[in-house]
Specification:
Layout (H helix, E strand, L loop, with lengths): L1 H11 L3 E6 L4 H4 L4 E3 L1 H8 L6 E5 L2 H10 L5 E3 L15 H11 L6 E6 L4 H9 L3 E3 L4 H11 L2 E5 L2 H10 L7 E3 L3 H4 L11 E3 L12 H10 L4 E4 L5 H6 L2 E2 L2 H10 L5 E5 L2 H10 L4 E4 L13 H9 L11 H17 L2
Length: 337
């Protein structure tokens, strides 16, 4: 399988680019031209000359690539069924209904969506003067959004929203978790004392990390450091020695002195790869948490995609969605140049 993929890559040369997210398994990552987190991969699209971009990650990432790609470029995903549990927690019509309710009395609410959301939700943000953020630039983008209006609607990850807001010094009384039941009919018009409205979404993988696991590591291995991703709950983040994006976690592990013991609270494929890259350190998962959707992308699936590259239907984003979603993404890329 590996040799067959290498042959196809050699034949296509610079006409093909394979992008992979850090949560992909090693068997896929070894074929990637570019490996990165959401922000790093989004940034790379603009400079790619390849006619075919194969995106090894979940569907919203391939959609983002398709939005940022040039019209003549085709973006493919080995399994279009690789969705994201968190992204699926934000139905577009419900976001529109919540925005209508919050702005009923004239307040200017800026929607800011984590990149882990559909193109349609990014389009809503683009249309309402909002933008997109990743875990790496969430503090910069939330600060930006807070400066644009009377309040921010942060979606879909409530944990990332709360962790980021706390880093910016926002108190708990300035945040409100939305009650989105009943098509948003419980959402009141914006309250001037509230700066941040949180959509009650979360990542099913990072929800597997709990404060008791950290307490247990502290007891059994008091010298070890514990690093977690900000999709974990604020209670977990509070107890950890550090929290940050995927690139932050990688950097911290790379910079740790030889002999360090580090427990990492994020998706297992990344932790496992870091452990292999640092045999002089002890790198362990806080618990083994795998993203079942990321796991839908396999080496066999990548091979099948490459075989039918010229006939396969590429990832398409509705025309009415592309322009406003691109606007939301470009605002982020502009603010975080
Ligand atoms: S790890 Fe969580 S946020 Fe990332 S794709 Fe999987 S479910 Fe979505």
């Amino acid at each position: 399988m590996r040799d067959s993929i290498m042959t196809i890559r050699k034949d296509l040369g610079s006409r093909l680019a394979i992008l992979a997210h850090h949560y992909q398994p090693d068997a896929v990552v070894r074929h990637a031209d570019i490996l990165g987190d959401s922000l790093e991969l989004a940034r790379q699209i603009d400079g790619l000359g390849a006619e075919h971009i194969v995106f090894c990650g979940v569907h919203f990432m391939a959609e983002t690539a398709a939005i940022l790609a040039r019209p003549e470029q085709k973006v493919h995903i080995p399994d279009p069924g690789a969705s994201c549990v968190m992204a699926n927690m934000v139905p577009t019509l419900l976001v529109e209904a919540v925005m209508t309710a919050l702005t009923r009395t004239g307040a200017k609410i800026i929607p800011l969506t984590y990149v882990n959301s559909s193109a349609a939700v990014k389009a809503v943000c683009g249309r309402h003067g909002g933008s997109v953020c990743t875990s790496a630039n969430a503090p910069t983008m939330l600060r930006w959004a807070l400066d644009q209006g009377d309040g921010v609607l942060f979606l879909p990850d409530a944990n990332l929203g709360r962790n980021t807001a706390r880093n910016l010094g926002l108190g708990p009384h300035t945040m409100r978790m939305l009650d989105i039941r009943g098509q948003g009919r419980f959402v009141e018009p914006a309250d001037p004392s509230v700066q941040l409205y949180l959509w009650p979404g979360l990542c099913a993988v990072h929800a597997k990390f709990h404060p008791e696991q950290i307490t247990s590591v502290r007891r059994s291995d008091p010298e070890a450091s514990i690093l977690v991703h900000p999709e974990c709950s604020p209670e977990v983040v509070e107890l950890a020695d550090g929290a940050g994006s995927t690139s932050y976690l990688i950097r911290r592990v790379n910079q740790a002195p030889s002999g360090s013991a580090i427990y990492v609270g994020t998706e297992w494929n990344l932790v496992n790869r870091l452990a292999g890259q640092h045999p002089d350190k002890v790198i362990l998962p806080l618990v083994k948490a795998l993203c079942s959707n990321m796991a839908k992308i396999t080496e066999a699936g990548l091979f099948a995609t490459l075989q039918r590259l010229h006939t396969a239907r590429p990832v398409r984003v509705d025309e009415t969605v592309t322009a406003p979603a691109r606007l939301a993404l470009e605002r982020m890329l502009h603010v975080c140049r």
